Amino acid sequence: MNISEVILCKYGEVVLKGANRQSFESSLIKELRRRASPHGSFKIYFKQSIVYIEPQDEFCDMDGMYETAKKVFGFMGVTRAAVCEKNMDAIKELARAYLPEKLAGVRTFKVDAKRADKRFPLKSPEISAEIGGVILSAVRGIKVDVRSPEVVVGVEIRDDYAYVRAGQEPGAGGLPPRSSGRGLLLLSGGIDSPVAGCMMAKRGMEIEALHFESFPYTSERAREKVMQLAEEMCEFCSRIHVHVISLTHIQEVLRDNCKEDYFTILLRIFMMRLAERCAREYKCHALITGESLGQVASQTLSAIGVTDSVVNIPVFRPCIGMDKNEIVIEARKYGTFETSILPFEDCCTVFTPRHPKTQPKLSEVMAELEKIDVEALLDEAYQTLQTETKLVYPEYR
Ligand code: ATP
Ligand code: MG
Fold first, then answer.
1. What is the rounded distance in angstroms from the CA atom of residue 55 to the CA atom of residue 278?
2. Which CATH code for domain 182-396?
3. Among 130, 241, 113, 257, which Cα is nearest to 185's?
4. What is the SS3 assignment for 29-65?
5. Among the atoms of ligand 1, which is closest to the Cα of residue 347?
């Protein structure tokens, strides 16, 4: 039997979006079409709250397309299904041909049938019972378990065709790409900031990144590591413009003029001010950092209070309430962990004070800033901005 297989993607929160629903749906379709092209020629459209991805010829890479669909935010579930005409004989024949391979080694199953088309002559429980019977006779050793089956076999009677599938995997969740505006991620080479960026991308933000380097105190390799992280994030974020600004001169001026224990907080003030400037120029409407409350000296409540007070733009810190091990789990999920732990220096580790202030007072911080020409230093540093663009695959636009 010649089986034709498709990929079905089920919406997550998009279904709740009432009047905006159409624009959400079209951003999902647009993104899937862009992301599909390296995998071959697919027809992609939505109908009845589901996106259909149909291969157009035998050269299509279904495995690759399936993996890609699982990384597009906005879908709750992604599944491969086989298609046939809407009659019980065809559905049974398809179940017999398609499911044994999918259910090989599986011990228990149940069938969950759904009729989107209520004119179909059999009711859902009847369809489930008949297809269950087919599976029991076609798959050796398998048993029915309606309470906790290893695999749920789905049979869906939709408008045009019937679909048969074994199991369903979770989608990436969240909201469709580019549905929530653009944010500027302060991207270091660590574990936390790539996770923070992916978490905001999951809420529909388009991610742009800003990295601070301190060449020659930080190496070329450290910068390459950050570029590699940005490229890995593109699996979920598709495209990231990465801006790089040099903090070298600012750090030397701070070292030579300010109290050592204020160095960390002062440096963070410069980072935030430069990030705000970059966000305005590139039309980003929020800053995103990987800070987690209390993780290091610069992430105490008073330090965060000081860094927040020097900018006038929302600052999102999605990792703020997470433990390190929770952040690591996310980093593995987004595929950035292994690169994050490569041992290269970060500008924050250059001239690190022996006893950084954990409870900085704004007035004392301001007194330190009085000693140097902040605006001139900001202007000079901003001049060093360079941009590289990272894409999920070379032709993605
Ligand atoms: P991460 O694991 O993200 O590097 P961290 O635990 O090392 O975080 P910090 O070094 O205090 O923590 O940095 C806190 C946040 O400040 C980072 O998550 C990131 O958003 C930003 N940041 C730190 N260093 C840089 C840098 N060199 N360039 C851009 N942003 C940075
Ligand atoms: Mg860091």
1. 42
2. 3.40.50.620
3. 241
4. HHHHHHHHHHHCCEEEEEECCEEEEEECCCCCCHHHH
5. 27
Tell whether omega for the bond before 216 is within 30 degrees of 0, i.e. cis: yes
351 DSSP assignment: T
Structural tokens at position 119:
């004119």
Strand stretches in 48-146, DSSP E: 50-55, 75-84, 108-115, 143-144
Residue 49 corresponds to which tokens in the numbers above? 């709250």
Pocket test for ligand 1, best of 348, 352, 385 (most atoms within 8 A of CB): 348
Q: Which atom of ligand 1 is nearest to the CA of 296?
A: 11
Q: Which ligand 1 atom is at minimum distance from the Cα of 210?
A: 29
Residue 98 clears pLDDT 80, i.e. is over it: yes
- Residue 4 host element (H or E): strand 4-11
Residue 136, classed as helix, strand or coil, is helix
Question: Starting at the edge strand that comes first in sequence, how are the strands of the sheet with 287-288 ordered?
Answer: 315-316, 287-288, 182-186, 206-213, 239-246, 386-391
| Distance, CA of 387 to CA of 393 (rounded, Å) | 18
Query: From the CA of 217, how far away is ligand 2's center (Å)?
Result: 15
Ligand nearest to the CA of 322: 1
pLDDT at 41 over 80: yes
Q: What is the best residue among 191, 193, 341 to mutate for testing ligand 1's pocket, by most ligand atoms within 8 Å of CB?
A: 193
For the CA of 191, the nearest atom of ligand 1: 2
Residue 202, φ and ψ in degrees, nearest 5: -65, -30
218 ligand 1 Cβ < 6 A? no
- The domains of the chain are located at 4-170, 182-396
Residue 32 tokens read as 């899937």
Question: Which residues lie closer than 8 Å to 329 by C-beta, 6 or more apart?
Answer: none
| pLDDT of 75 | 94
Query: Rounded CA gap, 265 and 135, in Å?
Result: 65
The closest residue, in CA terms, to atom 31 on ligand 1 is 188
Q: Look at residue 387 and give its three-state secondary structure.
A: strand
Q: What CATH code would you report for 4-170?
A: 3.30.2130.30
Which stretch of 108-112, 281-285, 335-339, 340-344 has the lowest confidence by average pLDDT?
340-344
Q: Are 274 and 179 in contact (CB under 8 A)?
A: no
State the average pLDDT for the chain: 93
Entry pTM: 0.93
